[in-house]
UniProtKB/TrEMBL annotation:
TM regions (residue ranges): 27-49, 69-87, 94-114, 126-145, 166-187, 207-224
Organism, as annotated: Methylophaga thalassica
Keyword Transmembrane helix: yes
Full protein name: Sterol desaturase
A Pfam family hit: FA_hydroxylase
């Protein structure tokens, strides 16, 4: 069946109105507005660190150094807002004015000179620090890669529904402490399965071997969790939200029903908890997993060479998002292609890429509709059974 399938190439229409070109005021408008929002959020995080930052992340960064970055962000926001006024004749000026207002509110609240003291850690907080750092990191790494090695050069940054995915991106990062509390609580149910002899055997291994073991164990759990989301009819409407995105890029992978976001972390926490690997191995895994999860959705075409037969790559995961027949319910793995190979769900047709992305049945194109979608589908199925 797959051999006879006619693969098509994807058509992306040029959208000159949405392209970023120098001298039009559009770039400065987006820069000033983004910087003003991020700066105001950062000022609030410095004001109420116990409620608006994450304890685990605070250990990693230097809050005083980041305050220097905040200083530049605030001044650059004002600079780009003024540039927007100079360059643009009309529609972006409102954003420029908005950016100036937000930055001035930031200055009024204390700006970049709020004293930093000891923070009384709260268990449940909003991860504003995690949101800002992840956003800046993603733009620096992945948006840059998409510009340097694009798969679809004509796909613009503000492609259709990017705002929806930005909402999901913000939610997933702000909710980080709630997600971790839930995942740890879930894993603690497996207390009885903890084996001290297994854990000490794992800890006796070199770190690189521990990392390989964690990657494979996590991949196995994620493979079956993901496959269940596709193949168990009741679960699919939850996961369909992730698949409703029709343009893949660094932001697209953020789209996901909150039930899936929470359950995925909770499931992957089980093998991590049982293996009891060293913290250094866990840190390497978490960093690798976080970067790979974004990379595989990116609009990039990098020659991975033989690595594409070992690791999940953008081409492999793009096929998972395709609505074309040979690709439906394939490529479930998150890290390596091993389990798709083993369990017969592997689909990587040479150098072909999908022509179509999304679900065969279209989902609502707004957040509330997507959040409600599983309930809507369950009610529909129950109705059909009753009648
Ligand atoms: Zn899926
Ligand atoms: Zn995906």
């Amino acid at each position: 069946m797959t051999e006879h399938y006619q693969y098509q190439s994807r058509q992306i229409e040029k959208n000159p109105a949405k392209e970023f070109r120098f001298g039009e005021g559009r770039i400065s408008c987006y820069l000033s507005f983004t910087l003003s929002v991020l700066s105001l959020l950062a000022v609030l995080a410095y004001l109420y660190p116990a409620y608006l930052t994450t304890a685990a992340l605070r250990e990693v960064y230097d809050a005083e150094q980041l305050q220097q970055v905040l200083k530049y962000a605030m001044y650059f926001s004002l600079f780009f807002a003024v540039l927007t006024f100079v360059l643009n004749k009309g529609k972006y000026k409102a954003y420029g004015l908005g950016a100036i207002t937000l930055t001035l509110i930031g200055f009024a609240l204390g700006g970049y000179s709020i004293p930093i003291g000891n923070v009384e850690p709260k268990e449940l907080s909003l991860g504003i620090d995690w949101l800002i750092l992840a956003f800046l990191g993603s733009v620096a790494i992945f948006m840059t890669m998409e510009k340097l090695f694009p798969k679809y050069r004509d796909q613009v940054i503000t492609r259709p529904e990017w705002g929806i995915d930005m909402f999901y991106f913000c939610f997933n990062h702000l909710a980080i402490s709630a997600i971790l509390i839930f995942a740890n609580y879930h894993a603690s149910h497996f207390d009885r399965a903890v084996s001290p002899s297994v854990q000490s055997a794992v800890q006796a291994m070199p770190v690189w071997l521990q990392v390989i073991l964690i990657v494979l164990a996590a991949d196995f759990v994620l493979y079956w969790e993901h496959r269940a989301y596709h193949e168990v009819k009741t679960l699919w409407p939850i996961h369909a939200v992730h698949h409703s995105v029709e343009h893949l890029d660094w932001l697209a992978g953020s789209r996901g029903h909150f039930v899936q976001v929470f359950s995925e972390r909770a499931m992957v926490m089980i093998p991590l908890y049982l293996l009891g690997a060293d913290e250094s191995a866990l840190n390497i895994y978490v960093t690798f997993a976080a970067l790979q999860a974004i990379l595989i959705h990116c609009n990039v075409d990098i020659p991975f060479g033989p690595l594409k037969y070992i690791f999940v790559t953008p081409q492999f995961h793009h096929w998972h998002h395709s609505s074309e027949k040979p690709a439906i319910d394939t490529n479930y793995s998150a890290h390596t292609v091993l389990f798709d190979r083993l369990f017969g769900t592997y689909h990587l047709p040479g150098n072909y890429w999908p022509a179509e992305y999304g679900t065969t049945v279209r989902l609502p194109r707004h957040i509330l509709g997507q959040t409600w979608y599983p309930i809507y589908r369950w009610k529909q199925r129950l109705g059909k059974k009753v009648s």
